[in-house]
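Entry for the shared binder. Reason: the reviewer on the internal report wants the predicted structure included alongside the sequence.
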Amino acid sequence: MQTSQICILIVIALYLIGMMAIGIAFSRKNETTSDFYLGGRKLGPFVTAMSAEASDMSSWLLMGLPGLAYLTGIADAGWTAIGLMVGTYLNWLIVATRLRKYSEANKSITIPEFFSNRYGDKRNVLTLISAVWIIVFFVPYTASGFSACGKLFKSLFNIDYHTAMIISAIVIMIYTAFGGFLAASTTDFIQSIVMTLALVIILIFGTVKAGGVSNVIDNAKSLPGYFSMIKTYNPATNSSNPYQFLNIISMFAWGLGYFGMPHILLRFMAIEDDKKIKLSRRVATVWVVISMGVSVIIGVVGLAMTSNGAIKNLQGSNSETIIVKISHLLASHGIIPACIAGIVLSGILASTMSTADSQLLAASSSVSNDILVKFFHTKLSNKVLLTISRISLILIAIAGVVLAWNPDSSVFQIVSFAWAGFGAAFGPVMLLALFWRRSNLYGAIAGMIAGGTMIFVWKFVIRSFGGFWDIYELLPAFIFALLVNVIISLLTKAPSKELTDVYDSIS
């Protein structure tokens, strides 16, 4: 192993040890399941903002987005980023404050529990359906994170994929199982800082190696359609293709997913004071805009580096390793640059881990709190329930490792599908639960089933027809779920005065 690789490995090892230490340090603060899953509603505004966005971005920010820009230009990556920016802002503006107040008023510590309490679901049917969807979509989502970690270590150090994946999964399991929500949120906050450092370092170093800002812009302008938001660049033919309006709508639809993401919505419920959400919203929005913008620009910079011979040409899915390749070049300049490269690569690891830990918590809460306690009405002490919560988290992580065992699995296709699943199953129900007084239990159940089911139908049946039907499944499934929820609510009995009184008190 080369000196540069040893330096990188030491930095990453220190980073992983630090994450585990945080988990163990926070383990003493978990006395109840509310502490474990919601941190006792004690998150400060900065931790709330940054942990929410770090748990959201995953490796898409440091791998998928720059890789997309590198390959086809700024249109695809740009419209995706804009959709996510708008979705982030609207989620904080519309949902955050009201969900924080409402979840405290009806004494909910998980998203499924909030839905059942909101609609007076005595049998907790809605809790069960929500928990099932969380497990269905989060287990493969978590698996994609483990897979990304395995691939990263294999490409860096030629370590066996399965060994690297298992080690990564164990680290995530340790600090999440010990520390719970507070540990996950604190590590996510730290990981967001590491991700930011990674983006800044690569942007500056890459621009210098590409010959400066003017060379980067000139190279992008010289390629047909590359520097346009209404055209895309085709590297195979060195020509441009028009960027269809249908594609823009599909990319914008990514923003709808935010309204249904359990691991992000939980941060809204956990902030210590709803009056501090305004500050959190500003911090989160600024970070998302800057980080996504820089991520897209790195793809453009990377292609300029390829053009002047600084790095080799990357084709197909290999374009997603653009930051890894630039890090390798940085590490070749000596020990200190190699350590800095280690920070960059820790940022890629952080983007994956910050999402995986939140997903594990949400999925394990569905098994222990939502299914075992709420649906089956199992009476357990806080100590026993905490133990079961940790065991269920570990079992779900093991299931994720099994699903990620194939090294050729497509990480980002899984992420895209799971994102759509949560957006359609939970998004419409959440919006109507918070903002429509007439919404009732029957509409919520029907809408949640319709949204989650339509994701599968549209993805694997309707979208295959092509043409107009080839649109990101989140948009049609979201609209369908919303309509089903409204229609069934209007056709069935209105909610009781007890429920509407709580709704009115929040208003």
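Summary line for the report: Residues 3-410 form a domain with the Sodium/glucose cotransporter fold (CATH 1.20.1730.10).
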